[in-house]
Here is the input.
Amino acid sequence: MVVGVAGYYGFRNAGDEAILEAIARELKARGHEVVALSGDPKGTREEHGVAAFHRLNPLALLRADLWLLGGGGLLQDATSALSLTYYLSVLRLARLFRKRVVVFNQSLGPLSPWGERRVQKALKGVPVILRDQDSLEYARRLGLPAELGADPALLLTPPPVKREEDLVLVIPRAGVSQEALKNLYITANHLFHEGKQVLVLLLQPGYDDEVAKTFYLHRIERTSDPRRVLYLAAQAGYVISMRLHGLILAAAAGTPFAALSYDPKVAAFAKETGAYYQELPGDPIKLSKAAMYGRYPDWEKVEALKERARRSFDLALGEATPVKRPHGRG
Here is the structure.
């Protein structure tokens, strides 16, 4: 079967590219062909080894039998109403073309009352798999039946690399308050003065570049390559991240982590893994102590999330596969 994937792909965001990498690997391992909608089809073809078409080309939806909308945080209008409109339009158009559609391992929200009404209407009759418990509860409040999955990037396998216990990855994000960035900078400074190696990792080059000046005293690396992020996460002794996929790839690598949450999806992942987290603007001393004294997530909960991620593919592909019933009397 040809399976299409629609999300925020081709925009040099390491988190979304990690999702696509994981989905493509899992689908290929199950014997399916993969087609992706992308803002940079050529780059997506080269980086992920899948067929890719421009996300604004509606006829690309004819290329697959099943479309997975997601994963990621697509069903929200906090970023912009235009973003939500785009993804719901993809969903509606695919259904108009009589393609099977599954909302796949997404977060739900934040949504305005206007956004809630649009999502309720668009998702009626569509199989929905959400990646965290908070989103599942939100869906139920909106009257949307849903299953619980997990972020596919949890299934990525880390490379063999020697762990450096003194290395701490600090992952900020643009678009948050200066106070929050300053507090994360104080955290990085405190760890450095306590003898830790600090690497500031920017996961969306271009967008995140503006925060580099805040961390100018520290070593900085920019990358949108999820393989590179996973390598560094596996190498590090600890990860402190504002970005969700800094945490998810740390979990995939078996590296302890703590979160500074700018968005409900970050807090939701921290809660589900039993990891230490703070809401913005954060307390830099307590955050640095989490790294210094090895405050760990609950690894059994992480493994349970990985199993949920695997099962989500069974759910999605099962929804998409017609049941063959015997003819005649049985």
Residues 299-320 form the longest helix (22 residues).
